[in-house]
Amino acid sequence: MKFKKLTPNLMVADVRRAVVFYRDLCGFSVVMAMREDGKTVDQALVDGTGYVFAILVRDSVELMLQQAENLRSELPGALKTRAAGFSCTYYVEIEGVEALYEHIKAIAPDAVRLSPHTSSYGMREFCVEDCDGHVLVFAERAQA
Question: What SUPFAM superfamilies does UniProt report for this protein, alphabetically (predicted)?
């Protein structure tokens, strides 16, 4: 048996709003977005269209975003009482942590929860909260 990758599927209140957050603040690209009809797939967001699911990618990091009610309907036994938002932190190792911090701080300073600092385990990191309450820590190895 071999584990190949882990892709978080974040439960969100509004897929479009979440896509805009990750696209504009973190530089993710839309791979696909499924419309509310559950059948039509777009390769980019279409104005005035509602979505229930999207896949985003940046470099080797992939995220899935799924509208809360849609996800609950797919996994009713596991998620029927779960709210969209915080359930764990997502630790994303990147290159250029200071540049990403400055970019996010300039666009959405209220999203920043912890400014860049060097951890006791040698990582330069900062923390943001997305529009649904998901907490992401962006980090890179601190320079010696």
Answer: Glyoxalase/Bleomycin resistance protein/Dihydroxybiphenyl dioxygenase
- For residue 23, what are the contacts with CB-CB under 8 A and spacing of at least 6? 29, 30, 56
pLDDT tens across 85-136, in order? 666 788 999 999 999 999 999 999 999 999 999 998 899 999 999 998 888 9
Q: CATH classification of 1-77, choosing from 3.40.30.10, 3.10.180.10, 3.40.980.10, 3.40.309.10?
A: 3.10.180.10
Read off the pLDDT of residues 15-56 as tens digits, 9 standing for 90 and up.
999 999 999 999 999 999 999 999 999 999 999 999 999 999
Domain map of the chain by residue range?
A: 1-77, 85-144
Chain-centroid distance of CA 65 in Å reads 7
